[in-house]
């Protein structure tokens, strides 16, 4: 049997539903072009903040439905005869996560794909149909939806963070596909105080909780990890390269060049702006040295990151970052050590960003394309 091409995509789509007329058409077109280019046999799309980042999930329910049905009905997806979408729209439920797991299975691969029923503890065959589950997720046998316990939240206040898990057999190989959304940095100033920041510590605990829950099954975890740079070390880096004077108060932190009086770094709770000789919107590769959170897990692997930070892009521009946060690689595809053996080494692997030159919201989607080792 020829190896199957698999594409895993993660996308925080919150801003799409806040500016739907401006962003959804360009996002959809870019995604369709991606599918036409990569031609996967099995395509998994994990989305976060479905319906928007504000409390408008109920109002945007029709937008969400149209978003999915437009993908299902596009001519480029006519060969994907089996589609399954599990979207959490139960905004009044205490388990609400605003996440969605969407899967497209090519007709040629369908006989060799099964989905796991957590209720019956068995794999089940799939039929050619396009289904959309968005209510009564607690009764849906094909997903496992987990919200992190309250003690895992930095503020000890519940929000939409958690993970949704599905389990598959593809050409005889078993794998878990996990959509995850971890906690953001609530304040840039608080994140600047320690290395690692208190937010990074909470994210690590939550991801460890997820890993423990999954167990030893080969797993691909892809979503918005909200991994941020170690900004305390970044500030130290700036100070080590130039003669800078620091200014600090309860509301801001600044580093100012003692010679030119240029502001090199300016941080407020919701603002992060730096001006460095080695930085530009075109090349922020020097920041990768301060991207450390993904390396904290011995049981997880990640391909080399060759793409720019995935957040926070300006929504009004094709590219370029806004100044609300330090650019970071929030959106990732990680996989377990046991999953590494499922990736064919003699076939090309791609780990990259989608839509670098397209308006796609404040997060750019990240994809991982590989060929599955089959029995």
Give an account of the 3D structure.
The radius of gyration is 21 Å and the shape is globular. The protein is of the alpha+beta class and 375 residues long. The strands form three sheets. Strands 5, 6, 8, 9, 10, 11, 16 and 17 form an eight-stranded mixed beta sheet that branches. The protein has a seven-stranded mixed beta sheet with strand order 7-3-4-2-1-19-18, with no helix packed on it. Strand 9 and strand 10 form a beta hairpin. Helices cover 18% and strands 29% of the residues. It has six helices and 19 strands.
Number of helices: 6
User: What share of the residues does DSSP label as strand, in percent?
Assistant: 25-35%
Shape: globular
Uncertain segments of ≥5 residues (pLDDT<50)?
Answer: none
Order of helices and strands: EHEHEEEEEEEEHHEHEEEEEEHEE
Class from secondary-structure proportions: alpha+beta
Radius of gyration: 21 Å
Q: What is the residue-averaged pLDDT?
A: 93
| Termini gap | 8 Å
Total strands = 19
Index terms:
19 strands, alpha+beta, 8-stranded mixed sheet, 7-stranded mixed sheet, 375 residues, globular, 6 helices, 18% helix, single chain
Please summarize what this structure is:
This protein has about 375 residues and is α+β, with helices and mostly antiparallel strands. It has helices at about 20-40, 60-75, 190, 200-215, 230-240, 335-340, and strands at about 5-10, 40-50, 80-85, 100-105, 115, 120-125, 130-135, 145, 160-170, 175-180, 220-225, 245-250, 255, 265-270, 270-275, 300, 330-335, 350-355, 365-370. Strands 5, 6, 8, 9, 10, 11, 16 and 17 form an 8-stranded mixed β-sheet that branches. It has a 7-stranded mixed β-sheet with strand order 7-3-4-2-1-19-18, with no helix packed on it. A 4-stranded antiparallel β-sheet has the order 12-13-14-15, covered by helices on one side.
